[in-house]
Amino acid sequence: MTNFLDGLFAFRKEVVVSLLDSGRRVWIACPKEEGEKADYFRNLGCEMVDTPVDRRGTNPLRDFRLLRQYRKLMRELRPSVVLTYTVKPNIYGGVAARLARVPQLANITGLGTVIENPGLLRNVTVAMYRFALRKAHTVFCQNVSIQRFCEEQRIGRKRVLIPGSGVNLDWHTLQPYPQPDSPVQFLFISRVMRDKGAEELLTAAQNVRKRHPEVEFHILGFCEDGYESRLRAACDAGDVIWHSYVPDVRPYLQNAWCTVLPSYHEGMANVLLESAAVGRPIITTDVSGCRETVDDGVTGLTCPARDAVALEEAIERFLRIPYEEKVQMGRKGREKMEHEFDRKKIVAAYLEALNG
Q1: For 219-265, what is each residue's pLDDT tens digit?
Q2: DSSP class of residue 304?
Q3: DSSP state of 300
Q4: What is the pLDDT of the chain when averaged over all its residues?
Q5: Furthest-apart CA pair in the chain: how many Å?
Q6: How many other C-beta atoms can be found within 10 angstroms of the C-beta atom of residue 179?
Q7: How far apart are CA 355 and CA 185, in angstroms?
């Protein structure tokens, strides 16, 4: 169960393949989608089940309908195990699985804005998580902070730490570093929104380009949170170049000298894993889900979150690093991905849970 087929395709298709290879029948419950990704799963032998999910809505009637849909699926399909990802599938899929007495493997990919910010909605969400995952077979936690949070809040019984979603090292291969005479490109890959550090990035880009007009800042991703006018103004001023969403980031990573993600919180930042796997240094914030992806001063640089000045200083520090050291940073980042974040570790964790 997932709320977005793109995420399943980008980060979890290897788990699906492993399930099929083990002789299991696989249904994918997600909002209806057609196209290359849906065809990919169908061609593997998966069966797609249209299950609309209001990803960010807080309408209780819609969420109750989602719970009813999941309960209906349990009765009709009679699965031997349910794998859930993201908040609403974890919670409502977890309740349905609990009522049907079906083992659940829940993956908490991030705590999200609701959990990060104190208030009534946070308390309600935590209580729902606690109830939904009380009987879950396994709760996968994508970083230590998530694991600690689940332990403190008594969410789940068996909590297993995994290295995020890992990275497919065969798809994101080590690429030659850009030539020293090519334009220095910084790359931001994410939804353009406040919690991803969009404001800090745009401010830092503006100030850095005043001193280094030859430096380029490229942005890949949809624009959210009403940032489009701010983003377009930055584009018109020449501070950044916005490419919107692109289905394959690899060509842009090949041209990048460094990936920048000044996020406020993450489960595990997939864009940083992919960037390091390609051999690109990274600049990111010292927060859970980001700090784990980088060895500060070795494979990249870290700075405090919500601090445009600190981000600007980190970018300036990177620009002062000699070219060959930048190349070595990228290579060491690739080695870190090979040792710690190979997606095969995620597949092995799922298979162990299924067979345990």
Answers
A1: 999 998 788 999 999 999 999 999 999 989 999 999 999 999 999 99
A2: -
A3: E
A4: 94
A5: 63
A6: 7
A7: 46
